[in-house]
Amino acid sequence: MAAPRRVSDLAIGEEELAELEIISRSRTEPAGRVCRARMLLAYREDPSFFAVGVALGVHHQTVQRCVARAMTDGALAALEDRARPGREPVITQEARAWLIDLACRKAKELGYPHEVWTTRLLANHARQHGPAAGHACLADLAQGTVCKILDAGEVKPHKVRYYLERRDPEFAEKMAEVLCVYREVKLLKKRQKPADAVAIVSYDEKPGVQAIGVTAPDLPPVPGIHPTVARDHEYKRHGTVSLLAGIDLLTGKVHALVKDRHRSREFIEFLKLLDVAYPTHTAIKVILDNHSAHISKETRGWLAAQRSGRFEFVFTPTHGSWLNLVEGFFSKLARSVLRHIRVASKQELKDRIIAAIDLINHQPVVHTWSYMMDSAA
Fold first, then answer.
1. What is the pLDDT of residues 161-200, one digit of tens each?
2. Three-class SS of residue 91?
3. What is the CA radius of gyration of the chain?
4. CA–CA gap between residue 330 and residue 202 (Å, rounded)
5. Alpha carbons 60 and 66: distance in angstroms, whole number
6. Strand locations in 127-217, DSSP E?
7. CA-based angle 178:262:289, to the nearest 5?
8. What DSSP element (H or E) covers 287?
9. C-alpha to C-alpha distance for 15 and 19, rounded to whole angstroms
10. For the chain, N or C: smaller number of CB within 10 Å?
């Protein structure tokens, strides 16, 4: 008489079952996971190790071990390979720590002309100096092994990421002052009829706008041949200009000048432009950075000759020009107008920038600052 067939009760939840169905049909999962998922699904339909083995082309004991593991560890855990002992690591943990510590130092501190490490240079240095430091296992260190050790330690000494040091001890106070101005703008906007007692202007300069000319004519797009404008790689430099611009945060109007330089006299010329643009009784509040032209003796002398309360400057902190809303306007102008621009002279560049400003002022956009407004006092 034949022995009764052994049947294992395999319980699979609905979420696990749905995941097994996806894995069993996957074309990107590892083959081992796909095969085990099919074993479990087939065994769930027909609880016979032998029948499942024949259907899937594997030994029935393989099916039995997969099912047993699923019953103890869970269906999804049974899909993974068990950890194998493998070969003992040749490079010790102490040697790995020494190598990572070495990577955290600058190459030039050790006599190399390089500013940052390369993995090849690091491997050469470790092979030469590692055994002397008590790590004989580094004598035959390969460059690929260095990459693996650095990756495991999450160290990338061949890359540089820039940061901005906060050098203004009064950064928080100055930032709060700027944010308070933006809050004042928000309150003034809520009035149905904005009063002309105050005007708030966000101002900055955009220097170094290049006047570049072409040496050969541009070729327009041709459907089916080349979809973009074609331009010769060579170009001719005509010089640079500086854009001095300020946005009225209440109306969205842009006040702008385009000059060859941006010294104190050009800044004063811009202030005169604002002085003419607003009624004499309007207090003009200007948000600007700490450029030398804004605080020069010449600028202070001109401001002293104006009516008391006519101009009020609110300075952004040092390295805090991102708090100035006009920076976003410059970014948009650069992307939409200045990018790829080609001109025959500096004067043409000036005329086209002013024309772009006039076009913007036909339908002015009222800019709004919202970042960190809750922290404003």
1. 998 888 888 888 999 999 999 998 888 888 766 667 899 9
2. coil
3. 35
4. 11
5. 10
6. 198-214
7. 15
8. strand 283-288
9. 6
10. N
